[in-house]
Amino acid sequence: MNQPTPTRDDALTLLKTYNQSESLIKHALAVEGVMRFMARKYGEDEEVWGVVGLIHDLDYEQFPDQHCKKTEAILRENNWPEDLIRAVVSHGWGICSDVEPTTDMEKVLFAIDELTGLVATSALVRPTKSVMDMKAKSVKKKWKDKRFAAGVDRSIIQKGADMLGVELGDLITDTIMGMREVSDAIGLKGDA
User: Fold this and answer.
1) How high is the pLDDT of residue 2?
2) Is the torsion defined by CA of 13, 58, 111, 102 positive or negative?
3) Is residue 9 pLDDT above 50, yes or no?
4) Is the pLDDT at 48 greater than 60, yes or no?
5) SS3 sequence of the chain
6) How confident is the model at residue 1 (pLDDT cuts 50, 70, 90)?
7) CA distance 56 to 80
């Protein structure tokens, strides 16, 4: 029996049950925005990709040492469909999960999770503090400075781009475009 896809409201309620950190919620909204953008680009179900993006770090605030594992358990308790649980767990591949991303949705989530952080940090040091006027070139310039956003694992982003068979610049552009759609909610609309 197939479980129905949880609604965005279901996902947001669950996310806020386990996360109070404004920065983690903004990150979840950024990843959701990019996942929705990418779903349209790939001709996939925007709602499904969106809820996966929204919920992907469900356990991170309360259970950082059990990241992905605790989310898997929570989603099962809440009767989430297995393919969505697998997609969420796969974003931690090689870090905290041995579930390799195989579908387009899983590969995109893996690739853009860290990248949204680099894009957001890059936007915040711009005069406009915005993604609205940002180009991939600005992020690529920051990419080279390993001290900038040092917590962002660039090798994961590159591995994700390689899995998707896309150029890094194109992935950055798509991530920026997705984040523009939610720029107000994530605090990156700025003055632009």
Assistant:
1) 67
2) negative
3) yes
4) yes
5) CCCCCCCHHHHHHHHHHHCCCHHHHHHHHHHHHHHHHHHHHHCCCHHHHHHHHHHCCCCCCCCHHHCCHHHHHHHHHCCCCHHHHHHHHHCCECCCECCCCCCHHHHHHHHHHHHHHHHHHHHHCCCCCCCCCCCHHHHHHHHHCCCCCCCCCHHHHHHHHHHHCCCHHHHHHHHHHHHHCCCCCCCCCCCC
6) very low
7) 13
